[in-house]
Amino acid sequence: MRETKHNPNVIETCKVEGRLQSLQGLSKDLDQCQKKLSDYLERKRCLFPRFFFISDEELLSILGSSDATRIQMHMLKLFANAKKLHFVRGNTGVGGMHSTKVERFMFEKVVKIE
């Protein structure tokens, strides 16, 4: 692919020997990667079925972040009428929830985020 950078002529670049095989190999690798990613997301959804309510991209943004507050923007898709969580102890625990009607429900015990 470095050759393509030096010679941006598409016709000449496509005629390079082995180019088709190279692109087919890359396509196969990409398909395998996509399959493994889909399998991984499916396993996570089976562990927590509410993840079925959000897209692959949204689930990846949650799972791919160490910031627990990333889930806030997806709360309404995951739980009916639960707009946001009330984080406590420097975002290491959840102390309650807020509804779309600005009602608050505080938990008896803080739920530790793991």
What is the H/E string? HHHHHEEE
- Strand order in the largest sheet: 1-2-3
What is the SS-derived class? alpha+beta
The residue fraction in helices comes out at: 40-55%
Helix count, DSSP H or I runs of 4 or more residues: 5
Could you list the spans in which at least 5 consecutive residues all have pLDDT below 50? none
State the end-to-end distance: 42 Å
For the secondary structure, the number of strands is 3
Summary of the model, kept short:
This protein is 45% helix and 20% strand. The protein has 5 helices and 3 strands; from the N terminus they run H-H-H-H-H-E-E-E.
Give an overview in words:
This protein has 114 residues and is of the alpha+beta class. Helices cover 45% and strands 20% of the residues. The chain has helices at 2-6, 10-14, 19-47, 56-63, 75-78; strands at 82-88, 93-99, 104-112. Strand 1 (82-88) and strand 2 form a beta hairpin. The longest helix has 29 residues, at 19-47.
Question: Which key phrases capture this entry?
Answer:
alpha+beta, 5 helices, elongated, 114 residues, 45% helix, 3-stranded antiparallel beta sheet
Task: Describe the secondary structure blueprint for this structure.
Layout: H1 2-6, H2 10-14, H3 19-47, H4 56-63, H5 75-78, E1 82-88, E2 93-99, E3 104-112
Antiparallel strand pairs: 1-2, 2-3
